[in-house]
Structure formats: C-alpha cells, structure tokens
Amino acid sequence: MSAGSSLPEVHELLAREAHLLDDRDYEGWLELFTDDCLYWMPIDPLAEEGEMRLNVFYDDKAKMRDRVSRLDSGSAYTEEPISLTARSFSALQIEQDDGERLVARSNFQLIAHRSGDQRLLGGRYRHRLVREDGGLRISEKHVVLLGSDAPQRPMTFLF
Amino acid sequence: MQRIFMRTWVYVGHDSEIAETGDYKRTFVGTEPVILTRGSDGAASVVVNRCSHRGAAVCLMPRGNSSGFRCQFHGWTFGLDGELLGVPYSEEAVDRDELSLSSAPRVESYRGFIFASFNPDVPPLTEHLRDVLPYIDRFVEHAGEYALRVSPDANEVVYDANWKMQLENNVDGYHLSFTHQSLFGVLQQRTGKQPRYLTGSSDGEARVEAFSNGHTVMDLRSVATEVLRERLGIVPGAPPPDADLDEHFGIEGAEDLYLASTGPPVNISIFPNLNLGSINICEVHPLAVNRTRVVLRPLLLADAPPDINRIRLRYHEIGSGPAGFVQPDDIEMFERVGLGLASEDVEWVQMTRGRERETAVDETHRFSHVSDETPQRGQYRCWRELMGGPA
C-alpha cells in the first residue's frame, strides 16, 4: 500500500478525535484508543522516548480513564468552571503505512478559554495507528507542546 | 525581595544537578538572576548572570557543562566562579577583581541541598536550619542507602498569586481532603475503598510543627501509609498487586524500595523558597507580588533498578505539573485567594486554627494537630521579622 492512500481515513479519524475532545465526549474519545495505548507529552520537546524521562503526562489507558473520571467528577477545580476548547490540526502527513500500522504527523493549535482568560497553545501531534477490525485505532498519541519545558499555567483539559 | 530573599539563606540547587566540574544551572535568588556552578576545585559558586561590562546575561541555557561563560555582546569571558578571564582588544589595564561577575558571598550545603546568601553576615547554614536537620535527614534517607539524584527535566508551573501561598500549602494538612477530593475519587474508583489521609479522629499521630527561622514541617507518619500505597498502585506500569516484588525488580528487599517511591510521609518547608514533599524538590520563585513560578523535580535513586526510577517518574506525574491530578487544584485555590483578596471591605484572613491547643516549646518552636495552622503562623512570624516590623 502506498503511503498517502490512507490520508482521508486518517484525516477523518483525527477530525473526529478533535470534535470529541472539544465536545468533552471523553468516553467517545477513549474508545478511539487501543487497550495498550500511550498518551504522552514530554517536557523536553525533543525527547525521543518518555519512559525513562520526566513528562507532563505519560498515560496508559487506565490513567487516561482516571484523567477522564477526574474531569467528570466536578471536583477537578481547575475545570470548574470548565475550559472551553477549540482545536484544529493541519499539515497532516502519513509518515509510515504498512497496511496494518501507520504513523501520522500533524501540527495543532488549541484555543482554551476559561473565566475570561483565553490561551493559545500549539505544537505537533504524532499518532501511531493500528488497523483493528477493519477500522483505525490510536495506539500512541505523542503531543509535543511548544513551551512544555517552560512554566505553564495549569492545563488539565485534554490535548 | 531585598528584605527576605537577599537577607537570608535561599535554596539554589541539589548537588546532583551540578555533579561534575563545569556543570551549571541557571536559576534565581528571589528575582536576582544567577548561575550555580561547580568549579574545578569541587566548590559550588553562585554568580550573578550579568556581564560586568554592559549587563547582558552571560548564560541562557537552563543547564549544561562549560569551562566558563562568554558574553556574546563584546566577548568578555568569565570563569566558573565568575573571575574575569578575558577582555578582547584590551589595551588599557583592567581591574580583574573589580570586573569579575558579582557572586553570592556565602554558598553552603547540607546533605546535597545547596543554599546561597547575598548577606555575608548570615549564620552558618547548619545553624540556620538546625531545628529541621533531623527532618532533612529523614527525607534524604527515605530510600535507605541509595544516593539521591534529581531528574534533569522539571515540571514548571506559573500562577497568579503570591509566592507564600505555595510555601503555606506544603504544610497545610487541613486542605488535603477538600482541595484534592478528585484524587481521592480516582483512588476510590480504582480500589473500591475510601482512602483518606485524615478522618478527624484517627489522625492523632500526624502533626504539624513550626521551628526557628520560619521552617515548618507536616509529618503524616503512618496516617498516610495506606493512601500512599494505593496511589502507588495506580502508577502506569506499577507491578500487579500480587507480584513477587523481588522477582519483578530483580533485587532483594524490593518491597521497601518500591514503597519508598512515595517518599517519606513528611513535608518540609524551608523558608523562603524550598518545599520538600513526596519525592519532589520544589523551588518557589517569586516573579511579582501576585505571580509565582514553581519548579518541581522528582528525586531518582542512583544505581537503583531502572524500573524503580521509572515508577518514581510516573508517581511524580500523577500529582505534579500543569496536567497533574494534584498541583493544578492547589494553584486554583491560590488564585481564588488572589481573587478574594481583591476585596477592600475585609482586611484580614483567618489563620488561627489550633492557636489554643498547640504546644509552644518556645516562642518559635510549636507543634499541633495536623490540621492546624501552626506552621503558617510560624512562616508569617519569620516573614514579619525579616520585613522589619515589630517582632
């Protein structure tokens, strides 16, 4: 399979993910991921691996569920009142595609608004995808945030 | 800044951050930009990050290794201790002593924690810290014989409120069950139990304590054992509950080392800018009266199995940093206080809890129930003294 032919399918998946997050449909978002997935944001934007480094987050699926249940609990006070988010991604390219496993790279911009305070965050996404039961699921979401190694205000919404 | 941060001892870094000759760390004493360096004689120096010529910062990198610093503006070069080494096109005599980088006159360390003071007349560091030395010892020895080394990466957050909020919070036993309710919710969901640090009646063993020079401690002792163990159990990659830990980590006595990944159940606040708690070193940097930067680094164990250090990294990430499950909720409360204090109608806050029941060993050394505000009063007693008001 030539790289690029899966572009519309990947684009559709990432757009769906973006809308699920902005709509705060966290359960729907979790379903996009494989059971052995990884969702991480390194502190060092150039970090190639995060397992033996300190990260902003390095979540397995169980911790992603914890993150979501905390947000839904009403007592995660940085999200009471909630942050509204609108995100877009661009420059999507399929870097690898062997038919079963794909790597997709994109840039993102995330606008978060809470209590009159509007922030613009941006960076790069790298999604590793696997084909399961005919559809694509996310096995790794690697978020490189510009400024992840600088002081940040709380960012407890999802990326 | 002058009366507090330039007058007393201020924490600048851990030995392991500048382990080798030439290692440096860019940091601040209050708002004074400095560089902590390790010289070829093994001594630590704290030099002001300001070229003596026209004032340009000579160091922009957060950390690194170098034989010295070169100002890129006009090429002046300085040694690791700030000594002026070179002035390009220098045809007139240069007073090298006069034009070396300014430096903190006092730099001393205790068990790896390096402090600096711009006040040449401060008492020796160990005298300044005397009452909390046993607690620092306990913190340093929480993983037995293993030497501590800090993670080079740090989680950094910034908030819109006063720097003292972070110092107060580290020894505030009262807020845990309320501000951090969502963390307990996560633990309950995972374990099916209702873990709590403090239940009101069973917390007699835990206590808070205030000492001389504004240093304070919150000692949770065995009250925290169960909740910390459960928190460790939700770490990504934690061994399953029924795992043989010696086999899992490939060493003998692995259980103690694994359980040490939560740190000692004691929080220590060294006035004015160092919080020790969990396995973290937390630096508090005032940026303005209502803006603060907080730098958090977990302590890893030199020569421990990589799996142990991996657990420690993941443990830090559960609570700390801008996307953690704990620290952001503290910050939210600091900022809500900042919003509330905009009131001009009400002048004072209540910080009186435990005033009647606390035990006063002497004027500064007091201890009380873990939920009491004894440590916060101790911090403000020191603050008032340094600010020069009535003692």
Structural write-up:
The complex is a heterodimer of chains A (about 160) and B (about 400). Chain A has about 160 residues and is an alpha+beta fold. Chain A has a single domain (about 5-145), classed as Nuclear Transport Factor 2, Chain: A, CATH 3.10.450.50. Chain A is built from three helices and six strands, in the order ααββαββββ. A six-stranded mixed beta sheet of chain A has the order 2-1-6-5-4-3. In chain A, β4 (about 100-115) and β5 (about 115-130) form a beta hairpin. Chain B is α+β, with helices and mostly antiparallel strands and about 400 residues long. In chain B, the strands form four sheets. In chain B, strands 11, 12, 13, 14, 15, 16, 17, 18, 19 and 20 form a ten-stranded antiparallel beta sheet that branches. At the A-B interface, β2 and α3 of A face β12, α5, β18, α9 and α10 of B.
